[in-house]
Amino acid sequence: MKNRESRSSWWEEPITLATVVIAVATMFNVAVSICIGYFTFDYTRTTKNIYKASNRPYLGVIQNDIKHDGKKSYIISTLKNVGNVPATIESISHSVLLDTSQMKPRFTDSQEKRSNLLPQQTMILVHEINLKAPITESTRMLEIEFTIKYKGINEDPYEDYEKYGYDNAHDAFIPIKASFK
């Protein structure tokens, strides 16, 4: 019996108790480090996405006008790179719909072949459409749609789709649909 009382249990010995406390603290430290690593990775991914989104070109149609010279009508479209890096235009496809039938517009200048747009630079496209009377004096429905494919400086492909309808009452094109990729 004396031996039993003279032996202390493990939690009463300071070295053993210190070792257990250090082991528990180490496990807690490992768990906290794993959480910090996970959140750091997540913040790094978010920062990378923000960087990519802020350092790319954004091409789009900023204005559509319609003009009539007495013989022909013209749709004058202005494209602009509102991003902060140059854009290399791969293709611009477009169509003009008049009363739901597709017309083949013809560019009247060769600016659509320009392959680069610097930041804040614009490109003007003139579409010639054969109408006998100005569209502004008509009740006909006129729509124009664009699909612009382009690349940035890192060669990532981007695509912009925009569709506009002509509003006779306000003598202006209004956006109908747009999507960016």
**Which sequence of SSEs, written as H and E, runs from N to C?**
HHEEEEEEEEEE
Biggest sheet statistics? 6 strands, antiparallel
Give the N-to-C terminal Cα separation. 83 Å
Helix/strand/pairing category = alpha+beta
User: In total, how many beta strands?
Assistant: 10
What value does the Rg take, in angstroms?
33 Å
Could you characterize the architecture of this molecule?
There is one protein chain. The chain is an alpha+beta fold. The chain is 25% helix and 42% strand. It has two helices and ten strands, in the order ααββββββββββ. It has helices at 2-6, 14-54; strands at 59-68, 73-81, 87-98, 101-103, 106-107, 116-117, 122-129, 142-151, 157-167, 172-180. Strands 3, 4, 6, 8, 9 and 10 form a six-stranded antiparallel beta sheet that branches. It has a four-stranded antiparallel beta sheet with strand order 1-2-7-5, with no helix packed on it. The longest helix is centred in the first third of the chain and has 41 residues, at 14-54. The protein starts with a helix and ends with a strand.
